[in-house]
Amino acid sequence: MKKGVLLVNLGSPDTPNPKDVKRYLDEFLMDERVIDLPYVLRAILVKGIVLNTRPKKSAEAYSKIWWEEGSPLIVLSERLQEKIDQFTSVPIALAMRYGSMSIENGLKELDEQGVDEVLLIPLYPQFAMATTETIVVLAEELRKSMFPHMSFTQMPPFYNHPDYIRVLSESIKESLEGKDYEHLLFSYHGVPKRHIRKSDITNGHCKMNGICCETPSPAHQFCYSHQCKEVTRLVGEYLEMEDGTYSTTFQSRLGFDPWLTPYTDRTIERMGLGGTKKLAIATPAFVSDCLETLEEIAMEGEEIFHEVGGKEFHVIPCLNTREDWVKVLSRWIDEWALATPVAVEA
Ligand SMILES: C=CC1=C(C)c2cc3[nH]c(cc4nc(cc5[nH]c(cc1n2)c(C)c5CCC(=O)O)C(CCC(=O)O)=C4C)c(C)c3C=C
Ligand SMILES: [Fe+2]
Ligand SMILES: [Fe+2]
Question: What's the 148 CA to ligand 2 centre distance in angstroms?
Fold first, then answer.
């Protein structure tokens, strides 16, 4: 048996042109775990409505943040892969759930190197149906149909792993060193509330009533809302922050369904109107900077804050290729790679 790793992130369009953005959004939003409507309704909504309007707007947003080398999300993920490769002894491949760098190609790359035992690492700290689950489901479908000789181990969401919390907390501390701020927002990508109910294995715990996420339950293993709030709580604890000086919000909602609240944009506006002048913001649903952090937060968010009287808006970068983050991921990989299989008696 030969071990190898597949890192998987979300993906980006090939270019920031409306045609490529449209193709990418088509694949992304037609995923039944992202827009979880029956096929016909999903197709009417996505192909009939969203794809006629959104690509132009999204393409403009992508153009503002695009780098010479390509999409920041892809470039940063590639740099992460290269750095991890320097620290670990097993082959490391990189794939995206949507777009050209497919999971199929990533698995082929590992297969060509003789790898038949794969550690699948979805690059998301928290579990969500629209991120972790869709990656695992597609990878398993591909394994069955194209790589039946391979076996997979899935890295569980690492939202509460002490190594991750330490690295995230240190990154926030360093980024805010010498800066003055009144409040730190932890802004996570939002999901429709319905997604949380669908992932509730207890069939009733997740009521999103402000109490359920703090009440112990097996549902939390798959509860995005709980896992986001835990990251905020654990970082607050690590950095010894005072109650009331930090809070959790959710960004990037789409459509008319109720999504997780409070919404980031409205919170920024409310805080500015309420007299907050100096705001800091971290985005721990993403390990790599991307459209949602570089445009929606660092550009749109800052504009909202300034419009309502805010003065200083400090955006904390994602972990990207921080050395301590690279070392933590490499150590997790090595621990898996070096683990001796437990002998099973016949
Ligand atoms: C129903 C729609 C969406 C759900 C649910 C959703 C969940 C979700 N997404 C991320 C991470 C990222 N999303 C990004 C972009 C993006 N997301 C949606 C829609 C949903 N996301 C859209 C339509 C887009 C495209 C841009 C736009 O038109 O606004 C990105 C950025 C990708 C990039 O190329 O930089 C990331 C990353 C998470 C973590 C998540 C659920 C937890
Ligand atoms: Fe998204
Ligand atoms: Fe909850």
Answer: 31
306 is in an annotated binding site: no
pLDDT, residue 346, reads: 47
CA–centroid distance, 129 to ligand 3, in Å, is 15
At 197-251, the pLDDT tens digits run 999 999 999 998 889 999 999 999 999 999 999 999 999 999 999 999 999 999 9
How many CB atoms sit inside 10 A of residue 187's CB? 30
Instruction: Give the separation between CA 126 and CA 140, rounded to whole angstroms.
Output: 20
- Starting from the CA of residue 209, give the closest ligand: 3
* The residue to which tokens 């490769």 are assigned: 85
Q: Which domains does the chain have, with CATH numbers?
A: 3-158+323-338 (3.40.50.1400), 162-315 (3.40.50.1400)
- Between CA 35 and CA 29 the distance in angstroms is 6
- The model's pTM is 0.96
**How far, in Å, CA of 250 to CA of 324, rounded?**
27
Nearest CA to ligand 1 atom 27: 58
> Quick check: CB of 199 below 6 Å from ligand 1?
no
DSSP assigned state of 91: -
191 CA closest ligand 1 atom index: 5
Quick: pLDDT tens for 290-343: 999 999 999 999 999 999 999 999 999 999 999 999 999 999 999 999 986 655
Closest CA to 186 of 249, 278, 269, 125: 249
Mean pLDDT for all residues in the chain? 96
Unique residue bearing structure tokens 């320097």: 86
| Ligand 1 binding pocket includes 130 (Cβ within 6 Å) | yes
